[in-house]
Amino acid sequence: MGISDNQGRMPYALLQALENIFQHAEDWVWAVDDQYRLIFANKAYHDVMHFLLGHSFEVGEVILSDESKGHENMVWKGYFDQVLRDGRMLKIDTTSDVVPGGVFMEFHFSPLYIEEWETKGVLVIGRNITEKRRLQNELNDALNLLNETEHLTHSGSWDYDLNTQQMKWSPELFRLHGWPPGNTLLLGLPDLQEIIKGYDAATREALTAFFNGPLIHHQTFSITGTYTSPAGLKRWHTIQGKARICDPDENRVVGSIQDITESQMYRFRLKAQEERYRKIIDKAAEMVFLSDLDGNFCDVNEAVERNLGYTREELLQMKVPDIDPDVLARQDKELKWDRLEEGREVRFEVVHKRKDGTFYPADISLVKVSLDGTPYILSIVRDITDEKAQKQALLEKNIHLQQAIQEKQRLLSILAHDLRAPFSTLLNTVDILSKDWSLMAEDERQTSIRQMRSNASALYQLLENLLEWSSIRRGKFIFRPEAVSILYAVNSVIDFHTEQLRKKEIQLQISIPEDMHLQADLHAFSSILRNLLHNAIKFTPKGGQVSIAVEKTEAGGTRIHIQDSGIGMDEAFIRNLFNPLSQIRRLGTEGEPTTGLGLLLCKEMADLHGWDLQVSSQTGLGSCFTIFVPSQQDEAEDPRF
């Protein structure tokens, strides 16, 4: 019996009930007439309109006007027109990017006839299906992962319904059986024999007995046998299953099939070689051990006796931990012999102990084997002491080679670029002086001469650094420590930078007692001071300050500070200061070029003395380089100074 009267009209009470349901529904429900005027909308519709558009529509208001030519407007008009024209329901899926990641929605359009107005209309019900899509995608990802895992492990899963006698197979099972891909959800094979006919007789008999016998919940089976594909290819399979007898409506057996042909063939090969085992084990160059699952040595070859210093009789009274102290830890954390898959090789490095108490690194390859039905661990061990030493030596050589190549490239870069600019400037100045000397005023001449001297000094310092750095890197530097007056060394370096200090109007402060000495190579010490002072002046703006101070530490050592009020450095810059492979460079405050070689040379020279070169700096607040000299290197006053 229908819910309308004989004129096809729906009772008013039922209409009221439907409207009440729509008003409280979580879905978005609205209706329009054939002029796109809103004739009904529930609260959910108004909420989503406010969210999407910032406003909603009132009943009687046109929600899609002809004047609006936007893409969305035209699309929705097309949906309404199609339903009005065809008089059939329509379902669409769409997305919106109003939130990150987008929102997935579905809409159902249904034609209406509004008898009161004698006009047609459309009822629309929409809902947010984002979560549904997300769950569907997660399910698809999980299924894809399962299929990929089964493919990698050469195994597949199955589900056999005992009531319908229908089998569900995963895609990998089709490949394992040499069948073309089929419907993975439902494989209608009412006769179980059709599925198992490719297996050997013993396997078919065991499977048939299991499925035809009385099954109890959680009953399991595991059968290994041979399978011959339709193409005649013979493989070894392990079939496992578990009964799920829950209620009369759900009686099924689930399980898996794995192709174990490779491991099975390995077992066969191993068994075929058992007769040759004694000859091979005694003549092998590597150490060969045979032990039981409790770690007792059952057999060894002659190489074991030679390498460990024990006799065979002694070894057969010993256990694996007697020569491998870490084996118990590996048993607890990583490797459990009783859980090893038979025929699967495991390889790792160990440290073995000889009878005389010495240790050696060894490469071990072990496999679980079965001899006369008893499981054993067969281990082949190789002393890799020389191999490790060779690898380490090769690694160090490669590191040194890479460093040498990069240092050579850096040296060539300095020669190609950093020497060219000052030489060009110097030559240009000389050229100007030679041509225009008589035309130049005295102050112009003096300025040009000072510029020449400054360029020549910069070239000299760069060449000096290059030669000293090259000498150290090639191991040709002759280190001659002696008692050196710190003040004397500092004054000699200051003379070299007088023009730089004058040009940049930098105030230099010296705080060094005359009687302070240290044990140092004067040339190397001067090179450190020269480069640190040169950098301090280079990165200090005009009118700044540079100071050189010396202090004694409480432990009797000496600290030499070269501090400036320059541009400073951040932590990232400081970390790469003494890295020979770093390419960091920056110009001085007056555009002075830099190579980074000077600080590398300072570090090399400090290391030659056993000193520590320290840096502290903050961007915009200057830098302080400190040379720390341990107390044992202090010396008495040199009578020459």
What can you tell me about this protein's structure?
The chain is of the alpha+beta class. Helix content is 40%, strand content 26%. A five-stranded antiparallel β-sheet has the order 2-1-5-4-3, with helices on both faces. The radius of gyration is 45 Å and the shape is flat.
Strand order of the largest sheet: 2-1-5-4-3
User: What profile does the largest beta sheet have?
Assistant: 5 strands, antiparallel
The count of DSSP E runs of length 2 or more, i.e. the number of strands, is: 22
Query: Which percent band covers the strand fraction?
Result: 25-35%
Q: Average pLDDT across residues?
A: 80
* Assembly classification: single chain
Helix content: 40-55%
Structural class: alpha+beta
Counting DSSP H or I runs of 4 or more residues, the number of helices is: 20
Termini separation comes to: 126 Å
CA radius of gyration: 45 Å
**What overall form do the CA principal axes indicate?**
flat
Unreliable stretches, pLDDT < 50, 5 or more residues?
1-8, 183-190, 634-641
